[in-house]
């Protein structure tokens, strides 16, 4: 078994070439240094130092060992420094998962604020649909996730983060429809522009129509919220989108919101971490930062 203290005493003795000086540096007695060296030599079956009148000199075997001991203690010192930097948030990384739309329209302000506060922390973003992001979180590929709710997953600790209000938007081509209340059937009869199948948003709106006895077949399926808004503004049909994601376009009149007789319910956005996973210092700091962010 390696006695780390022996090697520490060996290192100081080899560098100072004097048992007394090594003892002073280590804050122990000179006999303790001498005894440790003797024990180490007996354990290795090798002579490490030649005793001289004014100190000690490394043997050939001692010089060989010193190279490895110096490297080992340098690695330990580097590891200690790295841990200190992690503790002080001068190093580290966080792995976050979310959909592209949530990253851009909800998470980006928080990420910018966190990056300004802790510029040395590396931020790794993983995008995808809510089911995919949820699975990555469960498998430990990411530290935390921003997800569309509801999600029933006993392995996750999920807390509410924000509420989203959805709407159907159209371009100038459909202005007359924006001036009156519409039924779900009237909306379903329009060319629909929806996110691609499998996304939580797509599942939500399909279920909303299904609850009213309607099955919809969108004319256009896209994977980007920005593209949904762009195609709607060009007159291709009605896009289902979160109102806060197109607030600027609505204010400028580039998009028009369709008013529904049966309003769409608000949706919840949750922030999730695994119950059984100990977060890194950096990831835990981000979690606390996000939970206390002023806009939340």
Description:
The chain has 296 residues and is of the alpha/beta class. It contains eleven helices and 14 strands. The chain folds into three domains: 84 residues, Winged helix-like DNA-binding domain superfamily/Winged helix DNA-binding domain (Arc Repressor Mutant, subunit A); 95 residues, D-Maltodextrin-Binding Protein, domain 2 (3-Layer(aba) Sandwich); 100 residues, Periplasmic binding protein-like II (D-Maltodextrin-Binding Protein, domain 2, 3-Layer(aba) Sandwich), CATH 3.40.190. The strands form four sheets. The chain has a five-stranded mixed beta sheet, with helices on both faces. A five-stranded mixed beta sheet has the order 10-9-11-7-12, with helices on both faces. Helix 8 links the parallel strand 9 and strand 10. The mean pLDDT is 91.
Task: Give me the secondary-structure topology.
Blueprint: H1 4-16, H2 19-26, H3 30-44, E1 49-52, E2 55-58, H4 60-87, E3 93-98, H5 100-117, E4 122-127, H6 130-138, E5 144-148, E6 156-164, E7 166-170, E8 181-182, H7 184-188, E9 192-195, H8 200-210, E10 220-222, H9 225-233, E11 238-242, H10 247-252, E12 256-257, E13 259-260, E14 267-274, H11 281-291
Parallel strand pairs: 3-4, 3-5, 8-13, 9-10, 9-11
Antiparallel strand pairs: 1-2, 5-14, 6-14, 7-11, 7-12
What is the CATH homologous superfamily assignment of the largest domain? Periplasmic binding protein-like II
The CATH architecture of the largest domain would be 3-Layer(aba) Sandwich
Structural class: alpha/beta
Principal-axis shape equals rod-shaped
Helical coverage, percent range: 40-55%
**End-to-end distance:** 54 Å
- Number of discrete domains: 3
**Total beta strand runs:** 14
Number of helices: 11
Radius of gyration: 32 Å
- For the biggest β-sheet, the strand order reads 4-3-5-14-6
